[in-house]
Amino acid sequence: MEKISLVVSAFNEEQGIEDFHKEADRILSDYVKTEEGSGYTYDFWFVNDGSRDSTGELLKKLRNENPETVKIIEFSRNFGHEAAMCAGLDHADGDYLIFMDADLQHPPMLVPEIMRKFREGAEVISMVRTENEDAGKWKNIASGMFYSLINKMSTMHMEPSASDFFALSKEPADVLRNSFREKIRFIRGYVQNIGFNKATVSYEAARRVAGESHYSFKKLFKLSMDTIVCFSDMPLKFGFVAGVITGVAALIVLIVTLIGGSLKGTAAVITVMLFLFAVLFMLIGITGRYLSAMLAEIKDRPIYIIKDIEK
Length: 311
Known about the structure:
Layout: E1 2-10, H1 17-32, E2 40-48, H2 55-65, E3 70-75, H3 81-91, E4 96-101, H4 111-119, E5 124-132, H5 137-153, E6 162-169, H6 170-179, H7 187-193, E7 198-205, H8 217-231, H9 234-258, H10 266-299, E8 306-310
Parallel strand pairs: 1-2, 1-4, 2-3, 5-7
Antiparallel strand pairs: 3-8, 4-6, 5-6
Helix pairs in contact: 9-10
């Protein structure tokens, strides 16, 4: 029989982790009893991403109550959502892997639809969010602007509103395990651009069952910068463009001065200098971001450290 593995990252989810398991286990249990699901078994791979509340204890309770279906990967500390998904990818042994969060914003009820897509020949399934009740207006606008920007800057295409809710069959999962091991990474971007037979499923993100989002503005900004570094080298080329623009501006000033004009006043000189220094510091910052990514690869430190694993 083939196996479905749900890979679930959890960080401080004590208020909702049991509700999530109850709902997802009910749906999967019902599904494998149907005619179309009769050829499958299932399990859960929970990745405890260094939770500081009672999430770890609750996961062990679920494990004791469901030893055949609940597996736990426990990090030594918090390594972040990307690292948690990577650990789940590395260790989950199902024929079909479905990645989702533990807050029920990624609806488990869509598992039968995902499996239907696999039976139709899909190998990579991206879940595209049509609405997010928890995200405010500005967050949705910022998300749309980000995807538009990265698609213009990169040769790869990102599906707008695609999320960390996705599914993989065995072959593309092996490709991600073996060939996409960057220290700074954006897994949902890799999923959308590794090829294979791809399908999409639309869904509405419900409100979190409990707690609040762990993605602050600072974390979202860092994720955006990491994504640009992963998928585009266009910011590095900005230095050439800035050099051309400032060179042309300097030539114009020289011509104006030679034909009798003049730039008067200390304010004008200071403004020009501030503009040039702003461009220079921005270019240094961009270069530093790419050098930081290169340094992380050279150090080759582990993406995550496992404290304990219960299979």
